[in-house]
Amino acid sequence: MSADGVNKERRRFLLATTSAVGAVGVGLAAVPFISTWLPSAKAKAVGAPVEVNVGKLDFGQILKVQWRGQTIGILRRDERMIEDLPSLDDRLRDPNSAESIQPGYAVNEARASNAQFLVVNMHCTHLGCVPQLIPQVGAQPFDDDWKGGFYCPCHKSKFDMAGRVYNGVPAPTNLTVPPYSFLDDQTVLIGVNPEGAA
After folding, report:
1. pLDDT score for 194
2. What is residue 8's three-state secondary structure?
């Protein structure tokens, strides 16, 4: 104890204890605040690749999944659907997909790495509506010589069975093909290009 009646050791002890408790309190108060900066599990999942089993898809059937907030369609095409594609080239705005978005391995007539499966973003390139798949061949109210494909009833845009846009419709480009790869004969991984592909 000093001459003025103050216990300096006790004062140092109380000051150190108060400082330590204050620091712990600030740390505990900061944890919830800092944790709000971290992405949620839902946010992480939104951008994560999506694994899809396509083994049970019948020919002409489409399976729709969500990836990055977009509807992705996986369509299984039969031989006729694939063989009809070249016959439509003169009716299409971008038959060679030169002005459309797709990975390099999908710049072909089928717009696919495996012609049997079309993997495509289902949102119309006009205003983002989701076109209907109409696989039946034959006259339709919107096309007298329909070979099957996608039709957007909202604004009348038409796409063939490879998601290629017809001439004279509001949609400016073909449906977008997202990055994807086959893990095996029955499993597609949407969001990841095949190894070595661009």
Report:
1. 83
2. helix
Pairing of strands 62-67, 132-134: unpaired
How many residues does this entry show for the chain?
Answer: 198
Which two three-digit tokens encode residue 144? 């007298």
The whole-model pTM stands at 0.74
Give domain limits for the chain.
1-38, 44-190
* Spatial CA neighbour of 114 closest among 58, 33, 180, 165: 180
CATH of domain 44-190: 2.102.10.10
CB distance 60 to 134 below 8 Å: no
Task: Read off the pLDDT of residues 123-169 as tens digits, 9 standing for 90 and up.
Answer: 999 888 899 999 999 999 999 999 999 999 888 899 999 999 999 99
Distance from C-alpha of 29 to C-alpha of 12, rounded to nearest angstrom:
26
